[in-house]
Backbone:
């Protein structure tokens, strides 16, 4: 067996494996205000391979008002970090999202308040301070499968291209050797 063919196949396998190692994950989430139960949200978010939430979609309910959730926000100094296996999935800065008509919301862990997981609303506390915190019950479930990130797709295509080029050159050399 040609050593170049073997090396090309190994390179392609390595690139393909690396490509599928970095995937974005989709989570279904929901939360409800534990005090009055009048505020809640349901939807999905996308978590990249660095544990950063890159998108939120869904529905926000405040009292009798409903609004679409449409993307992340920097409200409340959010760092968008999410730890699915940690006891507290958000850190102190939390993750924020924007709604069409109800403002921005920040979901965070506040150990100093004794409330644990909290939500802060930009309409109640425009500065994002802890004054408007509401204790929440939060749940998130990973949706089956994952979506490779763009860099992963590029590595995978490069790997397949390398295998194809190696095979093409091997066939060409074999044909030339047979006619000589």
Residues:
């Amino acid at each position: 067996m040609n050593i170049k063919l073997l090396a090309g196949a190994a390179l392609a396998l390595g690139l393909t494996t690396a490509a599928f190692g970095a995937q974005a994950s989709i989570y279904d989430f929901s939360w409800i205000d534990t005090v009055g139960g009048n505020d809640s949200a349901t939807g999905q978010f996308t978590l990249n391979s660095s544990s950063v939430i890159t998108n939120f979609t869904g529905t926000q309910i405040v009292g009798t008002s409903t609004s679409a959730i449409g993307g992340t926000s920097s409200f409340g100094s959010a760092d968008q970090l999410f730890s699915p296996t940690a006891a507290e999935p958000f850190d102190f800065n939390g993750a924020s999202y924007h709604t069409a008509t109800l403002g921005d919301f920040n979901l965070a862990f506040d150990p100093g308040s004794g409330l644990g997981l909290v939500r802060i609303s930009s309409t109640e506390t425009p500065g994002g301070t802890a004054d408007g915190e509401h204790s929440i019950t939060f749940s998130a479930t990973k949706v089956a499968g994952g979506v490779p990130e763009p860099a992963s797709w590029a590595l995978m295509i490069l790997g397949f291209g390398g295998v194809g080029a190696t095979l093409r050159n091997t066939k060409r050399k074999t044909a030339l050797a047979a006619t000589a």
In short: DSSP finds two helices and nine strands in the chain. The chain has a mean pLDDT of 82. The beta strands are 23-33, 39-47, 53-62, 65-73, 95-99, 104-110, 116-121, 134-142, 147-148. The longest strand covers residues 23-33.
